[in-house]
Amino acid sequence: MSDDRMDFNATNGSVSAAQSASPNRNETDNSMNFDEYVQGKLSIFNNLDLNAGVRNIHSILNFNPHITGGVSKGSVQFSNTTPSIGFLWKVREDTNAYVNYGKGFQTPNSIQMAYTDGTSTGQGPNLNLAASNSDNYEVGFKSFVNENTRINLALFRTITRNEIAVYSNTSGYASYFNVPVETSRNGLELSLDSKLQHNFNVYAAYTYMDAKYDAAYSGLGLGISKGNTIPGTFKNQLYGELSWTYPSLGFTTALESVNNSKTYANDNNTAYASGYSIVNIRAGFKQEISNWRFSEYARVDNIFDRDYISAVRINDSNGEFYEAGAGRNYIVGLSASYRF
Predict the structure, then answer these.
(1) Is residue 198 classed as helix, strand or coil in its secondary structure?
(2) Number of domain units in the chain
(3) Is the pTM of this model over 0.85?
(4) Which domain holds residue 214?
(5) Please, are residues 162 and 178 in contact by the beta-carbon 8 Å criterion?
(6) Strands in 70-148 per DSSP E
(7) What is the CA radius of gyration of the chain?
(8) What's 68's domain CATH number?
(9) pLDDT in tens, 301-332
(10) Residue 220: is its pLDDT beyond 70?
(11) What is the Cα–Cα distance from 75 to 6, expressed in whole angstroms?
(12) How many helices (H) and strands (E) does the chain have?
């Protein structure tokens, strides 16, 4: 990927001719990623499978400024090898249980490296930003309660070192750093999918996640306490959907409910956005004529026009953390495809 990036000062949202003639940054950023992986499955017994794999990761980022002053030229490389292993136990024909373990390796992207984190001089790039490493554990089961209802349950734990996080948001510029202590995410995921009579279907998914700092540290001039919640994460998320189909007309409609608990906006957990619930509705038709497939669809999001905060600007230096969610909005579309 090659990006041409420019940055200008602006006055009341407009860039003057003089400002456009003197950009703060004018550069070409290049990134390349080359991974190789192998994975396989071994049936140890008729009811027990071993799944394993390994991935080799190699990533390069280059920053090439076209102007002098403030912005430095640089390049950085990231390499790692991550294994994974898991067992699948076929308890019965309608029930599987599994356990998985895998190493994680997350490299920073060019946006995260664009600006320094305040611990070094200059506008950027932040060549000190390192990749994060994680250990990921999961255990769960999938089962058909009856021929029409399926339940999935998973328990997970992730331990991360050098997590890439927002250091500060200042004047519209976000800088990132590596958290100096371990972080963890512990939780569960539960879903239910059931076919009802008269072409109705109900689906529900719930996620609980406790994302926290596992030790105290100093950041942004503030003391971050052990056990503080990682900002921008939701402890509770619930999605529900009731759908109905009319097969003879190719018609489908559904009512959706999206529910998120509060989320913190800064590392020391003094600011947060309240939880919210919104309701959406969608509908559509599908037709097949010879080799052609047609579909028409429409949806209305936030049908009750609720006011809510959909995102937070983590660690904003001016305390302007909150970004409003969209009010009632509509999407209408159609598509056509041909099979040769």
Answers:
(1) helix
(2) 1
(3) yes
(4) 2-338
(5) yes
(6) 74-92, 95-106, 132-146
(7) 25
(8) 2.40.170.20
(9) 999 999 999 999 999 988 899 999 999 999 99
(10) no
(11) 19
(12) 1, 22
